[in-house]
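Re: the request from the purification team.
They wanted to know what the chain is likely to look like in 3D before they choose a buffer screen. I agreed to run a prediction and write the result into the notebook, where they can find it.
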Amino acid sequence: MNPLDLDTLDDCQLQGFFRRSKTEMSCMDKPQTFLKQLRDHELILEEKFQVRLKEMIGIKSKEVMQDNVYELLNWIEAEQPQTIGLFWTCVFKEFLMTQYPTLKRLQDSLRSLPNGENVEIWTLDKYRHHRPVTCGDEQGTLYRDKLAKGEPCILRSKKWYTPSAFEKLGSKGSSRNWKKSIRCNDVLLENLLKDGHLTCPGYNKSKAKKSTLPCSSNTVSAISESEEEMEEEEGEEEELQANPDEEEVSIEDEMELQGNDSSTQRSDTDQGDNLEEVTDERPRVGQNEFRVICGALSGMLHKSRFASGRCGNSIRTEDRWMSPVEFVEQGSAMPNALWRRDIQWEGQPLSSLIERKMLDLHSEQCDCRLCHADPKVLEEQKSDDYCFVCGSDLSDLGDLVMCDHCLRSFHQKCHLPQLDPSILEDDNDWVCTFCIWNMNEYLPRTTYEETLMHPVSNHMLPCHYLLLSLYNADKDHIFAKDPCSHVRGYSSQIVTPMWLDKITEQLLDQQYTIGTLLTDIQLIFSNCDQNKPEFRDMGIMLKEFYEQFVEKVFRRQ
């Protein structure tokens, strides 16, 4: 792809494509030539590159090599985002693409990336009513009809946000123009409004193209050009005067409102006002986890483990628990980095959480179990103190068993296969299903069609791994329990309810073949597609993981 082609894409599109392609590039075989090209174009600091290159020459493990390359790409994204355009220019060279077919595939994908013109992303049934959107590092789901009515229309972590509030979440609140900050499939919402794919109160439809899609019954009726222009000016003025203390709307609140017809009927003027509200960015009372970053390193800070900078391994990354001091030393390239200042939460220094009393800083004289240098406690802090499957630390579910090869911990009955109580008294190392899966190269010895007919007893490892992964991905436990017991009207809408606990029970009784197991899992997703929109969106994300697993494990031959 020549520079002229790259010029048709803006920086956000190129950076978004880079972010999505890092894993694929890190898996390229023998990446030394690729890295030298980045060094020659000054995309990697000489000193950092030389240290990494010397380490890589002696690396035999493909996984370790991939981790090193991914770390370098992470560093480019975090520290030099302005050079992403140059990155693509220098790697899309014929000699490199000949050696690395992955780059050729990425070039073809980038060439087909939409530039905002004639985009018909809403024509698929899957995305006709809602679509994933991004703003900065934040991700959510935009509901088209809610935007048209001027209601909070972006769902993120079970909370509804207005576009302005979602823009502020993405650390772009200073721009005060959500139409130019929020993207759908790398296309600005402004372009989708102009092309008629979206409507919202106050937007001047006279300048927009007529949509080729059928109009939704919830779409606001057309108004005169002069009224629209006036509303658009008023709407932009309201954005600048938005109340920063307005709270976001939870799913539960939304369902309450939907049950009361009188509370949901609003005038066009009221709808326009609501569109420009800004939600409160302060942490919720009782919030126990905070997503934090330092340089290219990210993790989750757990309030229950936090004591001070050096005491309490309170930040969990993908591969270990760290204290704030260790986290900043690992993530920051600055020699004088400070954990209070350089660890960031929602674009603010970590000290802001202490000032707001959301984190309790222990005194130097504190002798609690976190501050006391008890070797046993320090050893326990290397593992999760909650169940990787259900997310709970409740003792009535059984004692937590810690894997000796990773960070994960499990209740005895949550793990698959379920653990015998005697394992708690056994001094031998115990390895969880995830680690066993990673240690073994599972390959079905038959075709996919033949594998579907096999009893699950012949393939227990991938079945256990799949179900445990689905439980973990279902963070809000939407699909674990019988939905008839907690979703109003579910049994009247769904003919054959299905949930993960029921599938697990039948798996343990070995009542399945591989085919019937996968059919029951798919039934969860098809039932979800007929249910409430907020559940449907979560089901889509879980289904994507499931389909990738089946493709990787059972269809790989």
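For the purification team: Residues 448-553 form a domain with the Histone Acetyltransferase; Chain A fold (CATH 1.20.920.10).
Please add any questions underneath this entry.
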